[in-house]
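Task 17 of the worksheet. Students: predict the tertiary structure of the chain below and write it out as structure tokens. Keep your answer in the requested format; marks are given for formatting as well as content.
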Amino acid sequence: MAPSLASVSDVSHDHIVLLLDTPDFENPPAWLSDNFHIIEGGTHKGGSSRNKLIIFEDGTLIELLNWIAPPVEFLDWASKPAGLIDFALTSPQSAHDTYAAVTERLENSDDGLGVTFSKPSGGGRQRKDGQHCRWFVTKPSYSDGPNVPKPSDTFFPTTRLDTPFFCHDETPRELRVPSNDKTLTTHPCGAKGILSVEVVVPESHIEHYVKLYSAVTGAEPKTHGGFRYKPSTSVSFLLSAPNPEAMKGLEDRVGIDIHAPRDAEDETWLKERGVGIREVRIFVPAKGESEVDERPLDSEGIGASLVLVTESVDQ
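Model answer:
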């Protein structure tokens, strides 16, 4: 019998990986520094990368990643250009229990996309204050399958990363994600947390990715707009939040949305960066009931793929 799916999964967003070149990492551009409180992270234990963090009240974060030496870790990111490159999920269960549950669902069907997950492996970094954070990452592995988009150099021009990974803390989560510290989670733009991640996939393969993302998240797919899977259609997978109170009233909005290219910008993204994370939408509570706004952090470039969504919410 196939594993059951939840209307709202207990899986949640953990963090977004935003790769920056060295000048932008050391002196973040205005679209970052004017909107967010950015804190120092540290150096990863392999020694080839460092990070800065944007911590949100909902318990999620954006990781600003930068290479400081030829990569000896995170090799699946090594060939990626600056910008959004990956995103992580987490769950209330342990890393190993989550691995077992996701593996069971994928064994039932990854719908021919050749996706499995490797067993959890340890990671860590030393904070600027000398404390060590340790965690487990559970990453997807890819093989050929009958429904993998081809040719690969067209749909995965900078290596394949079309499936999120999982991150579970070994040390207390507050060491890695200090979301209870209001001095760190109060941002100039008013952001409270990650509303959704948008993933762009080929129109011809969207039904396969719907089944894959259901297996990974454990969430039922919900189709919005359009007729079946036309470009105007998005399919969402509703997730929980690490700190639900910060996203109260948005229980039917937090999640992952997948869709086919809708415009020239999406087509260009798919051509240049491949199937995978396309946009991050960040929730900002409105100051008035009538205030509704969607604003990319920048008019072009990397900042255009991060969007502030401002609206009022019934608490």
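Marker's comment: Helices lie at 22-26, 30-33, 95-108, 152-155, 173-176, 182-185, 206-217, 264-273. The longest helix spans residues 95-108.
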